[in-house]
Amino acid sequence: MNKVFLKSSSNLGMAIKSLGKNNLQFLIVTDKSKKMLGTITDGDIRRALIKGHKMSTSVRLVMNKKPKFSKINLSEKKYISLMERNNLKHLPLIDNKKRVVDVKTLDFFKTKRQSSNEVIIMVGGKGKRLFPLTNNFPKPMLPVNGKPILHHIIDKMKSMGFVNFTFITNFSSEIIKKYFQNGKKFRIKINYIKEKKFLGTAGGLSLIKKKLNDDIILLNGDALTDLPILEMIKFHKDHKSHLTVATKIHNIKNPYGVVTTKGFEVKNFEEKPTVSSQINTGIYLMNPKIIKKIKRNKHLDMSDFLIRLLNEKKRVLAFPIYEDWEDAGNFDDFIKMNNKKNYLNKDKF
Q: What is the pTM of this model?
């Protein structure tokens, strides 16, 4: 329970750190006597980030000040009914003095089900920035903490209930296929699509023949993250999005003092400012119908496809992530990924 409680004097950065420790994606903001002042969920934090709140923002500005709760000693059936009726994943329980003594979750009552969503992983790139490691070897098969990056991705997705995978391959595809085969030894199903030419980060989707009814999860085969995909799917569905992209805040500190001028007149000085922007992590959720907009066997990068969807007034949303995310884009990134052994050993990639 101590991992669920958060002091009302905390800020957004402290809340994110606490969420990473309790695995519930849920916090209860309390006063000194453990009386509940509000709650903070994973979704509350993402909404705060997208609104531009900083890590120093007080949790009092972010929390839900009127959360649902229940008394202790009710039946399991009543707890489940209350959570389902109010679309809750977490339910704080309070005693007669209004102190929080327990938290019930739907996951506590219900076993995890297998998901029917197709997980499509792009694994066909040449990985030129990692030459000579990738001269004759696919980047997704480079080892991190003793096993290929792609193996880590499969393990993580499988732990969340995903069992249907499609690998879009090109360069050195036989190495990937020999290692994973049809997926049976990993207790999943793997379908392979091989590009005859390089089709870009979106063009390969045009080669999918399988009928897809549920939203598609699209990943790059060289990135590891602790993003809760199930939360992203809920966000995607709740907002009726055509395509949702996971974004991460990236800060760049200017090493120089910046002078703002109007003509020759100096208007402001700012010493070594930091510029924040949301970067594309290469993690997407897509309505399967929009794949039909991609011309078969034509080169198309995802950035161009996103712009096309925006021009067509399709609903394209950003899902901000604060979890760890690493990609093996270059040697420094790959070394950094391998140095996170403690992180990787905790089943968080």
A: 0.74
